[in-house]
Amino acid sequence: MGREMAEPIYTNVLIKVSGEMLAGEAHTGIDTEVLARFAEELHRVNQLGVKTSVIIGGGNIFRGLAGAAQGMDRASADYMGMLATVINSLALQDALERRDCHTRVMSAIQMHQVSEPYIRRRATRHLEKGRVVIFAAGTGNPYFTTDTAAALRAAEIHADVILKATKVDGVYDKDPKVHPDARRFERLTYLEVLSRELKVMDATAISLCMDNDIPIHVFSLHEPGNIRRVVCGESIGTRLVADPV
């Protein structure tokens, strides 16, 4: 059976992508071509009948930790970072709706003019109706990353898996850009990730996934069609799970 004919193995996925991924080679702002490609991939997955939700970071616009490192109050800097995720979420909503893909932005910080407030039951209802749901503004609280927000929302909506789309094709034992002999893992347990201090997601997010038995699949977003391939069960990237077997 060909790639395009494969059936999805998941029915409910949450896709986590960093804000930097939307910036492309510029490393800041939003690259409209990158945004369009990402939106097209999401649309294709949604067309398979898979409940599709997304969380985007805000690092291409403002990163809370960077602001705090420069002397800003950490809470204020984190709120600014949350607002940056809203900008990215609205941009993605626009790109999806240009493809006639019904989309809702749900923000943990209330902004009635541009988004819906996050309400778990309403989010679940949107997904049941086939809409793509974009969760914006993280958890709505400072000191928590969008990784943690992804783990929290995945647990709340009973997602089958978190798909973490990154710049690299999985999780390595060391930085593959610096070390040519770096080894990519095909499968890791949550405890291995924590004990090895692998920079996949922050420890709070990993712990939430471990407590709620939510697998995480890490893969490259640069390869066109990868989101669909992962959703349809192809063995790419690295899978993080509770048990070693």
Description:
With 245 residues, the protein is of the alpha/beta class. It has a single domain (3-241), classed as Carbamate kinase (3-Layer(aba) Sandwich). The chain is built from nine helices and eleven strands. It has helices at 19-23, 32-47, 64-69, 74-97, 120-128, 146-156, 190-196, 203-212, 226-231, and strands at residues 12-17, 51-56, 103-107, 116-117, 132-136, 161-166, 171-172, 184-185, 187-189, 216-220, 238-241. The strands form two sheets. Strands 4-3-5-2-1-6-10-11-9 form a nine-stranded mixed sheet, with helices on both faces. The protein has a two-stranded antiparallel ribbon with strand order 7-8. Helix 6 runs parallel beside helix 8 and helix 7 (190-196) runs antiparallel to helix 8 (203-212). The two termini are 27 Å apart.
What do we call the CATH homologous superfamily?
Answer: Acetylglutamate kinase-like
Rounded mean pLDDT is 93
Main sheet attributes: strand count, strand direction, barrel closure: 9 strands, mixed
Strand content: 15-25%
CATH class: Alpha Beta
- Helix-strand string: EHHEHHEEHEHEEEEHHEHE
**Low-confidence parts lasting 5 or more residues at pLDDT below 50?**
none
CATH architecture: 3-Layer(aba) Sandwich
Whole-number tally of structural domains: 1
Distance between the termini: 27 Å
Number of strands: 11
Give the overall shape, derived from the CA principal axes: globular
Spatial strand sequence of the major β-sheet? 4-3-5-2-1-6-10-11-9
Structural class: alpha/beta
Helix content: 25-40%
Count of DSSP helices? 9
Rg for CA atoms? 17 Å
CATH topology, what is it called?
Carbamate kinase
